[in-house]
């Protein structure tokens, strides 16, 4: 006879107690962060019921199974409400992979090293910005790897979106109508470079040369079809998270750039796309232009953490399925995550924002979001941004960054407006029209893609 030390409801009671107090404390049997910092098996932090989906569901659903409309109710409590609706009503399916126990698979290597190296060195200054103990800009990695509050969690998400110093994404996008047809197909490039909190050159967390008040530069420019080719946007982020980014755009039809107002962050960049700048990385606006951060739930979850790079397919394109024409959803592999924090926040700095609140699901093992639902100003569910992060490896195939490390990055995104029932789905391709290819940490992107002169040049070619 096997006597369990912890009954099936032990973790649930622990999570409910923490949520009621509005605090986080990752790990149930012991603190999680020391295990991560010492490269130990993270399963030691959890009782048997949280070590696998098989144990959690008592064998009703297990690793290797497909979750679809026939069995999704068995794991409803492990999904966000929009994912549940997609599977139950719209033909989406997901495949369950084993839970990752080697935490190094959940991070960019250099970013994890910086997180361990700099743990305990972050604090908030009087204005609410993250600084080091001596008041300087953050020096790299998650500032709060063992985050205790909602705003600490969001600091981890905001200061380094993709957790690479530089990243250039070649993206293929499809925008799907309610009837399941492709309304638009775009190709675009997304470039970003952090000028503070850098991790790839130990001892040099900042870019020199007049960027002392900046956090990052980010641009997006479209390469096809011809009617939007050359349309470009540049967003300059200040380190002070109370300040709105400077947003510029280049419109080929007018052959000039213009400054856009702050509220442009809640509008599509081109027709048909459901993703707003505000949605990017589930943290597309400066952290302190949102507020009322709070932990509203602590729970196990089914989320995307790896296994979704399709380097063995032509141009790395993921398979699709579901919806009226079989074109609506990517086929994601998910895993049972023993502990996520659900963080609620509101756009306090945007009086006319169409968003009323968002709920972001964050994996405590790497403090990365595994899903985000936004609600309109009436409190009704509006959109989900479901991003697949992970290592770019499959079998013997892999992609390396400028450090010779296997790339850990975003791989694909689904942004579903369930009120209009319109889906934008896009993925990082091997190459897109114009000859653009993805790259990570291979030298500065600033002069090539991240200035007004650059977006003007890109828009004119």
Automatic annotation (TrEMBL):
InterPro entries: DUF1329, TAT_signal. Pfam families: DUF1329. It comes from the Bacteria. This is DUF1329 domain-containing protein. It comes from Zavarzinia aquatilis.
């Amino acid at each position: 006879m096997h006597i369990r030390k912890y009954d099936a409801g032990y973790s649930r009671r622990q999570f409910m107690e923490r949520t009621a107090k509005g605090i986080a404390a990752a790990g149930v049997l012991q603190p999680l962060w020391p295990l991560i910092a010492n490269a130990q098996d993270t399963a030691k932090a959890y009782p048997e019921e949280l070590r696998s989906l098989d144990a959690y569901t008592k064998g009703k659903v297990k690793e290797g199974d497909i979750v679809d409309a026939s069995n999704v109710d068995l794991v409803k409590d492990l999904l966000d409400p929009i994912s549940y609706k997609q599977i139950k009503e719209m033909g989406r399916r997901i495949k369950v992979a084993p839970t990752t126990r080697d935490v190094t698979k959940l991070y960019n290597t250099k970013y994890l090293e910086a997180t361990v190296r700099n743990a305990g060195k972050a604090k908030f200054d009087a204005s609410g910005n993250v600084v080091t103990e001596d008041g300087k800009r953050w020096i790299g990695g998650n500032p709060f790897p063992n985050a205790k509050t909602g705003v600490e969690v969001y600091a981890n998400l905001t200061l380094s979106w993709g957790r690479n110093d530089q990243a250039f994404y070649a993206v293929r996008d499809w925008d799907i109508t309610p009837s399941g047809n492709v309304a638009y197909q775009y190709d675009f490039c997304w470039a970003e470079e952090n000028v503070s909190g850098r991790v790839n050159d130990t001892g040099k967390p900042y870019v020199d040369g007049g960027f002392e008040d900046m956090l990052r530069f980010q641009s997006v420019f479209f390469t096809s079809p011809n009617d939007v080719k050359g349309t470009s946007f540049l967003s300059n982020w200040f380190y002070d998270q109370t300040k709105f980014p400077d947003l510029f755009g280049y419109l080929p039809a007018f052959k000039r750039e213009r400054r856009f107002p702050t509220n442009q962050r809640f509008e599509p960049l081109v027709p048909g796309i459901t993703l707003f700048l505000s949605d990017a990385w589930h943290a597309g606006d400066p952290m302190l232009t949102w507020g009322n951060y709070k932990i509203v739930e602590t729970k196990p979850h089914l989320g995307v953490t790896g296994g979704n790079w399709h380097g063995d397919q032509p141009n790395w394109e993921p398979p699709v399925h579901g919806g009226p024409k079989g074109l609506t959803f990517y086929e994601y592999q998910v895993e049972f995550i023993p502990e996520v924090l659900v963080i609620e926040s509101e756009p306090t700095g945007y009086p006319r924002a169409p968003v009323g609140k968002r709920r972001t699901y964050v994996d405590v093992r790497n403090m990365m979001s595994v899903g985000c639902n936004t609600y309109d100003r009436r409190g009704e569910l509006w959109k989900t941004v479901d991003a697949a992060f992970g290592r770019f490896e499959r079998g013997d195939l892999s992609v390396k960054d400028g450090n010779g490390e296997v790339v850990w990055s975003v791989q694909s995104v689904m942004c579903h407006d369930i009120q209009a029932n319109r889906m934008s789905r896009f993925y990082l391709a091997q190459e897109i029209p114009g000859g653009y290819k993805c790259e990570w940490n291979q030298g500065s992107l600033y002069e090539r893609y991240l200035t007004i002169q650059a977006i003007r040049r890109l828009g004119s070619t």
